[in-house]
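Q: what sequence does this backbone want?
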């Protein structure tokens, strides 16, 4: 639970401000855990689930869609071209000029 609260810096220095931020982080953690347990059919890591929720926060999507239908997309890296910057092809050979 300590890793998932993710409180990096406190916005206030008073005891009340620190306690409030810890309580808000705990409430957020518990809500995310409840959503994951009740809506998600898949066994995913909690951090991956939180990232998925974080990405979809600004979109109007149902929790069922976000938890079960939304699949992570990973793009496969393309193979780089065979020629590099320093290779020369036959059409662009250097010509020597007579002096």
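A:
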């Amino acid at each position: 639970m300590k890793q998932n609260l993710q409180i990096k810096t406190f916005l206030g220095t008073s005891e009340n401000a620190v306690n409030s931020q810890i309580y808000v982080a705990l409430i957020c953690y518990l809500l995310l855990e409840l959503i994951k347990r009740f809506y998600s059919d898949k066994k995913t890591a909690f951090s991956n689930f939180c990232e998925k929720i974080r990405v979809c926060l600004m979109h109007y999507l149902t929790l069922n869609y976000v938890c079960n239908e939304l699949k992570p997309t990973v793009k496969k890296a393309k193979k780089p071209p065979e020629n590099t910057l320093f290779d020369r092809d036959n059409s662009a050979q250097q010509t020597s000029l007579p002096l």
